[in-house]
Design goal:
This protein has 5 helices and no strands. The protein has helices spanning 2-28, 32-39, 43-69, 76-84, 87-109.
Length: 111
């Protein structure tokens, strides 16, 4: 059941951010300067921007340590998802794959 929740969160985590990002790209292209100007245009948007940056660093640390501990394959994929979309995709995708890995390990041990 939790895996289904993680997959649904992956879909939401991709669709909702890109619902905002695609119109920006269509209107301005990949204007990095404008992107950061708008991201930090006021204190509230800056608050959310900094929160996402710190959350991304936490995700990368968690993916590296937990992925290595569980001997998960291709842990770089979750970092790429985080960079291309955000924590909203990278985290639930990692949690989904982590759950699968834990289930595989439990089956191997006979649980």
């Amino acid at each position: 059941m939790i895996k289904i929740v993680y997959l649904l969160l992956c879909v939401l985590g991709f669709v909702l951010p890109y619902f905002q990002f695609v119109p920006f790209i269509l209107g301005h292209g990949l204007d990095i300067k404008l992107f950061f100007e708008q991201l930090f245009a006021n204190k509230i948007s800056g608050f959310f921007g900094m929160d996402v940056i710190v959350s991304s660093l936490v995700l990368w640390t968690f993916v590296f340590w937990e992925g290595t501990r569980l001997k998960m394959q291709n842990i770089w994929v979750y970092i790429v998802c985080n960079l291309l979309v955000g924590v909203s995709l990278g985290l639930p995708l990692f949690l989904f794959m982590r759950e699968r890995k834990l289930e595989q390990q439990a089956e191997t041990l006979g649980y």
